[in-house]
Protein backbone atom coordinates (compact mmCIF):
# COMPACT_ATOMS: atom_id res chain seq x y z
CA UNK A 1 0.00 0.00 0.00
CA UNK A 2 2.81 2.41 0.92
CA UNK A 3 4.77 1.61 -2.23
CA UNK A 4 1.72 2.29 -4.37
CA UNK A 5 1.10 5.52 -2.45
CA UNK A 6 4.72 6.61 -2.96
CA UNK A 7 4.57 6.03 -6.71
CA UNK A 8 1.20 7.76 -7.00
CA UNK A 9 2.48 10.97 -5.40
CA UNK A 10 5.13 11.46 -8.11
CA UNK A 11 2.52 12.72 -10.57
CA UNK A 12 1.53 15.48 -8.13
CA UNK A 13 5.06 16.86 -8.07
CA UNK A 14 5.96 15.43 -4.65
CA UNK A 15 9.73 15.06 -4.20
CA UNK A 16 11.80 13.03 -1.69
CA UNK A 17 12.81 16.31 -0.02
CA UNK A 18 9.19 16.81 1.05
CA UNK A 19 9.14 13.81 3.42
CA UNK A 20 11.10 15.56 6.21
CA UNK A 21 8.75 18.55 5.97
CA UNK A 22 5.66 16.34 6.22
CA UNK A 23 7.21 14.43 9.13
CA UNK A 24 8.03 17.66 10.97
CA UNK A 25 4.49 18.95 10.43
CA UNK A 26 2.98 15.65 11.59
CA UNK A 27 4.99 15.65 14.83
CA UNK A 28 4.08 19.29 15.49
CA UNK A 29 0.36 18.60 14.93
CA UNK A 30 0.40 15.59 17.26
CA UNK A 31 2.26 17.58 19.90
CA UNK A 32 -0.31 20.41 19.77
CA UNK A 33 -3.17 17.95 20.16
CA UNK A 34 -1.71 15.57 22.74
CA UNK A 35 0.33 17.88 24.98
CA UNK A 36 -2.66 19.43 26.82
CA UNK A 37 -3.73 15.93 27.88
CA UNK A 38 -0.20 15.02 28.96
CA UNK A 39 -0.13 12.31 26.31
CA UNK A 40 2.82 13.73 24.32
CA UNK A 41 5.81 12.22 26.09
CA UNK A 42 9.38 11.63 24.85
CA UNK A 43 8.52 7.95 24.42
CA UNK A 44 5.42 8.75 22.35
CA UNK A 45 7.42 11.18 20.22
CA UNK A 46 10.14 8.57 19.64
CA UNK A 47 7.50 6.01 18.68
CA UNK A 48 6.03 8.38 16.10
CA UNK A 49 9.48 9.30 14.74
CA UNK A 50 10.28 5.60 14.27
CA UNK A 51 6.90 4.99 12.65
CA UNK A 52 7.34 7.88 10.22
CA UNK A 53 10.86 6.69 9.36
CA UNK A 54 9.42 3.27 8.55
CA UNK A 55 6.73 4.81 6.34
CA UNK A 56 9.32 6.92 4.50
CA UNK A 57 11.66 3.94 4.06
CA UNK A 58 8.96 2.28 1.95
CA UNK A 59 7.38 5.27 0.20
CA UNK A 60 10.55 7.16 -0.71
CA UNK A 61 12.21 4.45 -2.86
CA UNK A 62 8.94 3.95 -4.75
CA UNK A 63 8.63 7.71 -5.30
CA UNK A 64 12.24 7.99 -6.46
CA UNK A 65 11.84 5.10 -8.87
CA UNK A 66 8.78 6.73 -10.41
CA UNK A 67 10.59 10.08 -10.71
CA UNK A 68 13.73 8.52 -12.18
CA UNK A 69 11.70 6.79 -14.86
CA UNK A 70 10.55 10.21 -16.08
CA UNK A 71 13.55 12.34 -15.18
CA UNK A 72 16.92 12.61 -16.92
CA UNK A 73 20.16 13.12 -14.99
CA UNK A 74 20.62 16.79 -15.92
CA UNK A 75 17.12 17.93 -14.96
CA UNK A 76 17.32 15.82 -11.80
CA UNK A 77 20.49 17.62 -10.74
CA UNK A 78 18.91 21.02 -11.37
CA UNK A 79 15.81 20.05 -9.42
CA UNK A 80 17.61 18.60 -6.41
CA UNK A 81 20.01 21.53 -6.12
CA UNK A 82 17.26 24.11 -6.56
CA UNK A 83 14.94 22.49 -4.04
CA UNK A 84 17.54 21.90 -1.35
CA UNK A 85 18.97 25.41 -1.71
CA UNK A 86 15.43 26.66 -1.19
CA UNK A 87 15.22 24.66 2.05
CA UNK A 88 18.18 26.55 3.54
CA UNK A 89 16.45 29.19 5.64
CA UNK A 90 19.54 31.02 6.91
CA UNK A 91 21.81 31.10 3.88
CA UNK A 92 24.14 33.68 5.42
CA UNK A 93 24.77 31.36 8.35
CA UNK A 94 25.49 28.49 5.96
CA UNK A 95 28.09 30.61 4.15
CA UNK A 96 29.73 31.59 7.44
CA UNK A 97 30.00 27.86 8.19
CA UNK A 98 31.49 27.39 4.72
CA UNK A 99 34.21 29.99 5.35
CA UNK A 100 35.05 28.55 8.77
CA UNK A 101 35.29 25.07 7.27
CA UNK A 102 37.59 26.35 4.49
CA UNK A 103 40.00 27.72 7.08
CA UNK A 104 39.83 24.43 8.97
CA UNK A 105 40.59 22.33 5.86
CA UNK A 106 43.36 24.62 4.60
CA UNK A 107 44.55 27.35 7.00
CA UNK A 108 46.52 28.97 4.16
CA UNK A 109 43.17 30.07 2.70
CA UNK A 110 43.01 32.70 5.46
CA UNK A 111 45.52 34.83 3.57
CA UNK A 112 42.94 35.38 0.82
CA UNK A 113 40.64 37.34 3.12
CA UNK A 114 41.08 40.55 5.09
CA UNK A 115 39.24 38.86 7.98
CA UNK A 116 41.19 35.60 7.73
CA UNK A 117 42.83 35.95 11.11
CA UNK A 118 39.83 37.29 13.03
CA UNK A 119 39.48 35.21 16.20
CA UNK A 120 35.66 35.12 16.36
CA UNK A 121 34.40 34.79 12.80
CA UNK A 122 30.78 34.49 13.94
CA UNK A 123 30.81 38.05 15.30
CA UNK A 124 32.72 39.74 12.47
CA UNK A 125 30.82 42.26 10.27
CA UNK A 126 33.38 41.62 7.51
CA UNK A 127 32.67 37.91 7.58
CA UNK A 128 28.93 38.52 7.43
CA UNK A 129 29.36 40.87 4.46
CA UNK A 130 31.42 38.30 2.57
CA UNK A 131 28.95 35.56 3.50
CA UNK A 132 26.16 37.63 1.95
CA UNK A 133 28.23 37.95 -1.23
CA UNK A 134 28.67 34.17 -1.24
CA UNK A 135 24.90 33.74 -0.86
CA UNK A 136 24.36 35.95 -3.91
CA UNK A 137 26.96 33.96 -5.87
CA UNK A 138 25.54 30.54 -4.96
CA UNK A 139 21.96 31.70 -5.56
CA UNK A 140 22.96 32.95 -9.02
CA UNK A 141 24.73 29.65 -9.73
CA UNK A 142 21.69 27.61 -8.67
CA UNK A 143 19.40 29.81 -10.74
CA UNK A 144 21.85 29.66 -13.66
CA UNK A 145 21.59 25.89 -13.95
CA UNK A 146 18.59 26.58 -16.15
CA UNK A 147 20.73 28.66 -18.54
CA UNK A 148 24.26 27.27 -18.63
CA UNK A 149 25.51 29.65 -21.32
CA UNK A 150 24.62 32.64 -19.16
CA UNK A 151 26.01 30.92 -16.07
CA UNK A 152 29.34 30.23 -17.80
CA UNK A 153 29.66 33.92 -18.71
CA UNK A 154 28.94 34.94 -15.10
CA UNK A 155 31.44 32.43 -13.72
CA UNK A 156 34.16 33.51 -16.14
CA UNK A 157 33.71 37.15 -15.10
CA UNK A 158 33.88 36.13 -11.45
CA UNK A 159 37.01 34.09 -12.16
CA UNK A 160 38.74 37.18 -13.55
CA UNK A 161 37.81 39.14 -10.43
CA UNK A 162 39.25 36.42 -8.20
CA UNK A 163 42.37 36.18 -10.34
CA UNK A 164 43.06 39.89 -9.72
CA UNK A 165 42.76 39.21 -5.99
CA UNK A 166 45.42 36.53 -6.24
CA UNK A 167 43.14 33.53 -5.78
CA UNK A 168 44.82 30.30 -6.88
CA UNK A 169 42.80 27.53 -8.58
CA UNK A 170 44.05 25.16 -5.85
CA UNK A 171 41.46 26.65 -3.46
CA UNK A 172 38.43 25.68 -5.57
CA UNK A 173 38.40 22.04 -4.34
CA UNK A 174 38.79 23.32 -0.76
CA UNK A 175 35.76 25.56 -1.15
CA UNK A 176 33.80 22.74 -2.77
CA UNK A 177 34.54 20.42 0.14
CA UNK A 178 33.61 23.16 2.61
CA UNK A 179 30.35 23.84 0.76
CA UNK A 180 29.31 20.17 0.90
CA UNK A 181 30.10 20.05 4.61
CA UNK A 182 28.11 23.23 5.34
CA UNK A 183 25.14 21.94 3.33
CA UNK A 184 25.21 18.64 5.19
CA UNK A 185 25.31 20.41 8.56
CA UNK A 186 22.36 22.58 7.52
CA UNK A 187 20.18 20.06 5.67
CA UNK A 188 21.08 16.95 7.65
CA UNK A 189 19.00 17.79 10.75
CA UNK A 190 15.99 18.28 8.45
CA UNK A 191 16.62 14.89 6.83
CA UNK A 192 17.00 16.61 3.48
CA UNK A 193 20.61 15.46 2.90
CA UNK A 194 21.24 12.12 1.21
CA UNK A 195 23.57 10.70 -1.41
CA UNK A 196 21.28 11.83 -4.25
CA UNK A 197 21.42 15.44 -3.04
CA UNK A 198 25.15 15.21 -2.35
CA UNK A 199 25.81 13.89 -5.85
CA UNK A 200 23.74 16.71 -7.39
CA UNK A 201 25.72 19.35 -5.49
CA UNK A 202 29.03 17.68 -6.40
CA UNK A 203 28.08 17.86 -10.08
CA UNK A 204 27.02 21.49 -9.71
CA UNK A 205 30.24 22.49 -7.98
CA UNK A 206 32.24 20.58 -10.61
CA UNK A 207 30.74 22.84 -13.29
CA UNK A 208 31.45 25.98 -11.25
CA UNK A 209 35.00 24.90 -10.47
CA UNK A 210 35.88 23.80 -13.99
CA UNK A 211 34.62 26.97 -15.67
CA UNK A 212 36.34 29.33 -13.21
CA UNK A 213 39.52 27.27 -12.93
CA UNK A 214 39.85 26.95 -16.68
CA UNK A 215 39.43 30.72 -17.15
CA UNK A 216 42.15 31.52 -14.62
CA UNK A 217 44.51 28.81 -15.89
CA UNK A 218 44.04 29.81 -19.54
CA UNK A 219 44.81 33.45 -18.79
CA UNK A 220 47.84 32.48 -16.73
CA UNK A 221 49.22 30.38 -19.58
CA UNK A 222 48.53 33.15 -22.08
CA UNK A 223 50.38 35.64 -19.89
CA UNK A 224 53.43 33.39 -19.41
CA UNK A 225 53.71 31.95 -22.92
CA UNK A 226 55.15 34.03 -25.76
CA UNK A 227 52.78 34.40 -28.69
CA UNK A 228 53.61 31.68 -31.23
CA UNK A 229 54.86 32.92 -34.56
CA UNK A 230 53.35 30.17 -36.65
CA UNK A 231 51.72 30.56 -40.03
CA UNK A 232 48.46 28.68 -40.71
CA UNK A 233 50.39 26.38 -43.02
CA UNK A 234 52.99 25.60 -40.36
CA UNK A 235 50.28 24.96 -37.76
CA UNK A 236 48.56 22.51 -40.12
CA UNK A 237 51.86 20.77 -40.87
CA UNK A 238 52.81 20.35 -37.20
CA UNK A 239 49.37 19.07 -36.19
CA UNK A 240 49.14 16.59 -39.06
CA UNK A 241 52.68 15.27 -38.61
CA UNK A 242 52.30 14.78 -34.86
CA UNK A 243 48.88 13.17 -35.30
CA UNK A 244 50.42 10.67 -37.72
CA UNK A 245 52.49 9.41 -34.76
CA UNK A 246 49.60 9.47 -32.27
CA UNK A 247 47.18 7.54 -34.48
CA UNK A 248 49.37 4.43 -34.52
CA UNK A 249 47.44 3.29 -31.43
CA UNK A 250 44.03 4.89 -31.79
CA UNK A 251 42.12 2.77 -29.29
CA UNK A 252 44.89 2.80 -26.68
CA UNK A 253 45.31 6.56 -26.86
CA UNK A 254 41.55 6.99 -26.97
CA UNK A 255 41.06 5.01 -23.76
CA UNK A 256 43.77 7.09 -22.03
CA UNK A 257 42.03 10.21 -23.31
CA UNK A 258 38.66 9.23 -21.80
CA UNK A 259 40.17 8.06 -18.52
CA UNK A 260 41.81 11.47 -18.22
CA UNK A 261 38.44 13.17 -18.81
CA UNK A 262 36.85 11.09 -16.04
CA UNK A 263 39.75 11.94 -13.70
CA UNK A 264 39.35 15.68 -14.30
CA UNK A 265 35.56 15.64 -14.14
CA UNK A 266 34.09 12.40 -12.72
CA UNK A 267 30.51 13.57 -13.32
CA UNK A 268 31.02 13.37 -17.11
CA UNK A 269 31.02 9.57 -16.88
CA UNK A 270 27.24 9.78 -16.44
CA UNK A 271 26.96 10.86 -20.10
CA UNK A 272 28.10 7.47 -21.38
CA UNK A 273 26.40 4.08 -21.69
CA UNK A 274 29.45 2.32 -20.21
CA UNK A 275 29.26 4.34 -16.95
CA UNK A 276 28.59 1.18 -14.89
CA UNK A 277 31.55 -0.82 -16.23
CA UNK A 278 33.49 -2.40 -13.34
CA UNK A 279 36.88 -1.88 -14.99
CA UNK A 280 36.70 1.09 -17.35
CA UNK A 281 40.24 0.63 -18.61
CA UNK A 282 39.33 -2.84 -19.93
CA UNK A 283 35.80 -2.03 -21.08
CA UNK A 284 35.23 -3.15 -24.71
CA UNK A 285 32.46 -0.56 -24.98
CA UNK A 286 34.78 2.26 -23.91
CA UNK A 287 37.51 1.01 -26.25
CA UNK A 288 35.09 0.97 -29.20
CA UNK A 289 33.80 4.46 -28.42
CA UNK A 290 37.34 5.74 -27.86
CA UNK A 291 38.40 4.41 -31.24
CA UNK A 292 35.45 6.11 -32.94
CA UNK A 293 36.25 9.44 -31.29
CA UNK A 294 39.94 9.22 -32.18
CA UNK A 295 39.08 8.44 -35.80
CA UNK A 296 36.84 11.51 -35.80
CA UNK A 297 39.74 13.59 -34.50
CA UNK A 298 41.85 12.14 -37.30
CA UNK A 299 39.25 13.21 -39.86
CA UNK A 300 39.27 16.72 -38.39
CA UNK A 301 43.07 16.84 -38.55
CA UNK A 302 42.99 15.74 -42.18
CA UNK A 303 40.25 18.31 -42.81
CA UNK A 304 42.61 21.14 -41.89
CA UNK A 305 43.70 20.96 -45.50
CA UNK A 306 40.15 21.91 -46.57
CA UNK A 307 38.70 24.13 -43.83
CA UNK A 308 35.61 25.18 -45.80
CA UNK A 309 34.50 21.54 -45.99
CA UNK A 310 35.49 20.85 -42.38
CA UNK A 311 33.46 23.66 -40.76
CA UNK A 312 29.95 22.35 -41.61
CA UNK A 313 31.01 18.85 -40.49
CA UNK A 314 32.08 20.23 -37.09
CA UNK A 315 28.90 22.28 -36.80
CA UNK A 316 26.80 19.18 -37.43
CA UNK A 317 28.86 17.25 -34.88
CA UNK A 318 28.35 20.00 -32.30
CA UNK A 319 24.58 19.96 -32.81
CA UNK A 320 24.45 16.16 -32.59
CA UNK A 321 26.12 16.10 -29.17
CA UNK A 322 23.38 18.16 -27.53
CA UNK A 323 21.06 15.14 -27.33
CA UNK A 324 23.65 13.25 -25.29
CA UNK A 325 23.64 15.89 -22.55
CA UNK A 326 26.95 17.49 -23.58
CA UNK A 327 27.28 21.09 -22.32
CA UNK A 328 29.56 23.97 -23.41
CA UNK A 329 31.45 23.58 -20.11
CA UNK A 330 32.67 20.17 -21.26
CA UNK A 331 34.83 21.57 -24.10
CA UNK A 332 37.65 22.80 -21.80
CA UNK A 333 37.72 19.36 -20.14
CA UNK A 334 38.00 17.57 -23.49
Automatic annotation (TrEMBL):
Any one Gene Ontology molecular-function term assigned to this protein's record: oxygen carrier activity
Similarity comment text for this entry: Belongs to the globin family.
Species the sequence originates in: Hemiselmis tepida
Positions of the Globin domain: 1-64, 67-217, 229-334
UniProt-listed CDD domains: Mb-like (cd01040)
Keywords in alphabetical order: Heme, Iron, Metal-binding, Oxygen transport, Transport
SUPFAM superfamilies named in the record: Globin-like (SSF46458)
Protein name: Globin domain-containing protein
Organism domain of life: Eukaryota
Amino acid sequence: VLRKLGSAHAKYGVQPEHFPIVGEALLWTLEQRLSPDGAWTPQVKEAWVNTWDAVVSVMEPALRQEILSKDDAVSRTKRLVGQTWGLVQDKVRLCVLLLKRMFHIDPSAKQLFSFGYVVNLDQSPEVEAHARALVAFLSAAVQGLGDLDSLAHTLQSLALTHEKLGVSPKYFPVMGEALLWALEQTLGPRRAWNHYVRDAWIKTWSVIQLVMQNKITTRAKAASTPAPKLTPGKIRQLVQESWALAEKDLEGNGVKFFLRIFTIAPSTLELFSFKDAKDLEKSPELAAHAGTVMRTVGQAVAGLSDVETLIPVLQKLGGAHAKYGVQPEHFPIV
